[in-house]
Design a protein that fits this description.
Blueprint lengths: L2 H22 L4 E6 L7 E2 L6 E2 L3 E2 L1 H13 L2 E6 L3 H10 L3 E7 L9 E8 L1 E7 L17 E4 L3 H8 L5 E3 L4 H8 L4 E6 L1 H8 L5 E8 L2 E6 L5 H17 L1 H9 L1
Parallel strand pairs: 1-5, 1-6, 9-10, 9-11
Antiparallel strand pairs: 2-4, 3-5, 6-13, 7-13, 8-11, 8-12
Length: 251
């Protein structure tokens, strides 16, 4: 056998060995980043920086269990602003960010694990309300509350609904309860969580006008083996009802 062939074979074996080690490397760790986005991710003290056990939320609990079952190590940090942590996950190998919508324009930028949960846009009304909506057009004759600067409020403005905006979305729960607004345009499950935090119950969904799913977005350099293990763990958790139990704990 020629020396050149031997060298080629040796090189191939080294590449294969390296790939095998990458798949089973017990020291591989993912740097996870998140933001304050109740009830999915939030710092326990309400600040815009937290690490590890000082972070909780629906997605945080799901992601922690997912990594545990998959046997993949990780570190977890909550930071601000979102644009910064999104960019880090996009550019740095071994990084990931959650939760984020899996949009067509983002599809090729990350490796995805999920869905972790929904992020629907809804119209909420009081339990005793007689309002019935079949479309956004039906909401034009009502006073609609929304969160100032939020994508939902901006969308409603684009649709010429002219929402009454509040500086904090939870203020709309109180406004709805007191009859100061007829409808509350918010996210689901975010709106239900915020209402619960304000002690407001008995709200009902009268319209769902946008549906989306939230995911863990991983840098494209994260090994496929790691991504597959995480996805498998999540699917097992969902089958067991573990994900539903977490949702119930917060909502």
């Amino acid at each position: 056998m020629s020396k050149r062939l031997l060298l080629a074979l040796a090189g191939t074996l080294m590449v294969l060995a390296g790939a095998a080690r990458a798949e089973v490397d017990e020291n591989y760790s993912v740097v996870l980043l998140t933001e304050n986005f109740p009830p999915y991710n939030m710092s326990i003290n309400g600040k815009n920086f937290a690490q590890e056990d000082n972070i909780d939320g629906i997605a945080v609990d799901i992601v922690r269990e997912m990594f545990k079952r998959a046997g993949v190590k990780y570190s977890l940090t909550l930071r601000f602003p979102w644009d910064r942590i999104y960019k880090l996950a996009l550019e740095k190998p071994g990084y990931g960010v959650f939760v984020t919508a899996r949009l067509p324009e983002r599809e090729q930028s990350f490796k995805w694990v999920g869905p972790i949960g929904p992020d629907d846009w809804v119209m909420l009304a009081r339990a005793d309300s007689s309002i019935a909506l079949s479309s956004l057009d039906d909401a034009r004759k009502y006073k609609v509350g929304a969160y100032k600067g939020d994508a939902i409020a901006e969308y409603l403005t684009q649709q010429k609904l002219e929402p009454v905006t509040a500086l904090r979305d939870q203020e709309n729960a109180r406004k709805l309860e007191k009859g100061q607004i007829d409808l509350w345009a918010t996210g689901d499950p975010a709106g239900r969580y915020l209402a619960k935090q304000e002690g407001v119950g008995g709200l009902k969904t009268v319209l769902r006008f946008n549906q989306a799913e939230l995911f863990l977005a991983l840098n494209k350099e994260v090994p496929d083996d790691v991504v597959n293990k995480l996805q498998g763990a999540l699917e097992q958790m969902r089958t067991e009802g573990y994900v539903d139990e977490i949702l119930k704990n917060y909502l």
